[in-house]
Design a protein that fits this description.
The protein has 15 helices and 35 strands. By secondary structure, the protein is of the alpha+beta class. Among the domains are: 136 residues, Immunoglobulin-like (Sandwich); 107 residues, Immunoglobulin-like, CATH 2.60.40. It is elongated, with a radius of gyration of 27 Å. The termini are far apart.
Length: 699
């Protein structure tokens, strides 16, 4: 072992676990996985922008290696110290080995990193990149850990998810926050989220990603905005921190989590374990490639210089290799136990079901370990149950408690509200809508799943916003600089006569109504509703349905809309409140035909006439009655997606009268009534305006 002249640092053998940098009162233990390396150098830096290390420790394979792990304990290394590695070994890409002793590598288990000097291009080409590499930071993350005891543990069927981008939520000057675009900025806007009534935020990736690559289109600088190419899985993204240069991002993130928990709001993280930011054979070498390329990635068997790409992002993480599985489980446990989050949404989650040969497994080890792990047992796990190579697992994703993003809910509800009346998968669209409202038993029940396995959504970060669904016939992605070829072409949207914004008052009222129709159907359906940041005030991306690179006003939340569209915020707020107050619309289990004290079955279907639903192609109307149990009110819902008014018969409930709670065709505040102020309905029918949803309760 070679100890360079810095008397305050003394190197000892160290231990192989835990992986990463683990400080204690006297120093720090360093451990990493790199089975085929010849030797390893640990570089210690005095500051985040030092181009030369203040101290180098050379690890001896005869002393500092146990099986596949290299380790050293360095006395005198305290939290706040910056560090990195150089790993020496064979460079033989055809065998899957990409060791490069000139490349400086960050620790895969680093709890924080700084990119002050980082130049991505230097990590992509041969040669030394010491002066332009990333630095990891020693962090005592367990000192003030939040712990599992901080989890809210709200039942899944009572969850209402708000998908949001940490930076875009407050980066606009209109936000008025002290620290825009940061975890702290989110904290300042918690009163807004609490008033809206959502119960969980689902944050687009907050693990560190590379936002330094820039390109210019029409004078605007474009970058990696969404963050779906992760660099460091244990480290919060420094771009969301007030003081990123310190590398101590843990406390800023945990402060946000604690503040959200105090407001009763859970934190779900969108995580990307399907690929990493190192890309394909032409991508940079800054971590996994330089330690164990042939273990961490799927490589082409005939020429392991190349990468299988099931993700559309250049490489695929080998999640069911033992070390890949351990890495993912260690990471998830860390974010639960130390950072205090409540759950995870797995981007392209189907990749995690593939074995080491790339074929889907019946019992993929990593997914079942997540399913059964005692640390993760109370957290929410949600899958995007497909991948870019065509594997589609919605309704049959491995495991019992995994929820899926229900893409069929999205497509069927979009078509229904638009006024479509087609056959879909051999069933009328109205018939499909009935299944979606029931929690999609046709998709999930066969596999002994429940409504809470379905995450229902009309839109998400990827695609049109809810506003743009009712304002554009076509995508408008020219600002991305890809000739409008990116993004999907079929959005099931409509502009209702004018492409984009309009000064026509009647047209804008119709668009408002359609937004309210989407909100009502989403929040009246069994399953777990998810809405997108800004849907409640008609946030627009001007028709861009793939704003992955737009870190600007196109993607940011415009807080001026909160006042401009206060009537829509009010509708969403009270619609969310309605869902919370009525168990009949968020049941944990499917309908069974059980009747209540008034003889009403748990659900009864109708058309314009009681007991006569029209399931035929061409139908654009559906109504249904939900029985209230344990003293709760019965609910009657009318959905008229025809463009003309229709008269709907009302069911008779002995000893009770129907009172209107919602009519999306009415102007605010009559479109939704606050609790206790519902309007009594006289007569045996109700005239529902074209393109409207009506909700009544029995009193």
């Amino acid at each position: 072992m070679n100890v360079v002249a810095e008397e305050r640092f003394v190197a000892h053998v160290g231990r192989q676990y835990p992986l990463g940098a683990t400080p204690d009162a006297k120093g720090t233990n360093f451990s990493l996985f790199t089975p085929h390396a010849d030797w390893v150098e640990l570089l210690l830096f005095n500051a985040h922008d030092d181009t030369e290390p203040m101290h180098i420790v050379k690890l001896d394979p005869g002393v500092n290696k146990t099986f596949q792990f290299w380790h050293v304990y360095v006395e005198g290394v305290k939290p706040g110290t910056h560090y990195a590695y150089r790993v020496h070994g064979p460079y033989d890409p055809a065998r899957g080995l990409r060791f490069d002793e000139q490349k400086v590598l960050i620790d895969p288990y680093a709890k924080g990193n700084t990119k002050t000097l980082w130049r991505r291009g230097d990590a992509c080409r041969p040669g030394d990149n010491l002066a332009t590499s990333i630095r990891s930071v020693v962090i005592d993350s367990h000192k003030h850990k939040l712990g599992r005891e901080q989890l809210i543990r709200r039942p899944m069927n009572e969850t209402i998810i708000y998908e949001m981008h940490v930076g875009g939520f407050t980066r606009s000057p209109s936000s008025g926050v002290k620290h825009p675009g940061t975890f702290g900025g989110v904290v300042e806007k918690i009163p807004y989220l609490k008033e809206l009534g959502i119960t969980a935020v689902e944050l687009l990736p907050v693990f560190e990603f590379d936002d330094t690559e820039k390109r210019s289109v029409d004078g605007k600088e474009l970058t990696n905005y969404w963050g779906y190419s992760t660099m460091a899985y244990f480290a919060p993204h420094p771009g969301y921190c007030v003081h990123p240069e310190t590398g101590n991002h843990v406390e800023e993130f945990r402060h946000m989590v604690k503040a959200l928990h105090e407001a009763g709001i859970e934190v779900i993280l969108d995580v990307v374990f399907n690929h990493t930011d190192e890309g394909n054979h032409e991508g940079p070498v800054y971590s996994f490639k330089g330690f164990a390329n042939n273990a961490y990635y799927y490589l082409v068997p005939d020429n392991r210089a190349f990468y299988y790409d099931y993700t559309g992002c250049g490489n695929t993480f080998n999640a069911n290799h033992p070390i890949g599985e351990k890495f993912i489980l260690d990471c998830l446990r860390y974010w639960i136990e130390v950072m205090g989050v409540d759950g995870f949404r797995f981007d392209e989650g189907s990749v995690l079901s593939r074995g080491e040969d790339g074929a889907p497994l019946k019992h993929p080890p990593v997914l079942w370990q997540i399913e059964l792990d005692e640390v993760l047992v109370d957290c929410k796990v949600i899958a995007e149950a497909w991948d870019a190579a065509g594997l589609y697992q919605v309704g049959h994703f491995p495991g019992a408690r995994w929820a899926d993003w229900n893409g069929k809910f999205r497509d069927h509800v979009r078509g229904f509200v638009r006024g479509d009346a087609d056959m879909v998968d051999g069933v009328s669209l109205v018939g499909n809508i009935a299944s979606r409202i029931c929690g999609s038993p046709d998709i999930y029940q066969w596999n002994h799943h429940l409504p809470l396995n379905s995450v229902n959504f009309v839109d998400c970060h990827d695609g049109f916003t809810l506003n743009d669904l009712v304002c554009y016939n076509e995508k408008h992605n020219e600002a991305n600089g890809e000739g409008n070829r990116d993004g999907i072409n079929e959005n099931l949207s409509s502009n209702y006569g004018v492409e984009g914004p309009s000064d026509n008052t009647e047209l804008e009222k119709l668009r408002d109504r359609q937004v309210k129709n989407f909100a009502a159907i989403l929040l009246l359906s069994q399953g777990v509703p998810m809405m997108l940041m800004g849907d409640e005030v008609r946030r627009s991306q001007r028709g861009n349905n793939n704003a992955y690179c737009q870190d600007n006003e196109l993607s940011w939340f415009d807080w001026n809309l909160v006042e401009k569209n206060a009537h829509l915020f009010r509708f969403w707020k009270w619609m969310i409140d309605f869902r919370k107050r009525h168990h009949a619309v968020h049941r944990p289990r499917y309908f069974t035909g059980q009747t209540n004290a008034r003889g009403l079955p748990d659900i009864t279907w109708h058309g314009t006439r009681i007991g006569q639903p029209d399931w035929s192609p061409g139908s654009r109307v559906l109504s249904f009655t939900l029985a209230g149990f344990d003293g709760e009110a019965d609910i009657h819902v009318i959905m008229n997606m025809y463009w003309e008014p229709l008269e709907f018969e009302l069911p008779k409930v002995a000893g009770r009268e129907w009172c209107r709670a919602v009519d999306t065709a009415l102007d605010s505040p009559d479109d939704i009534c606050e609790p206790g102020k519902e309007k009594a309905v006289s007569g045996e029918t109700y005239r529902a305006q074209g393109r409207s949803v009506v909700v009544m309760i029995s009193k």
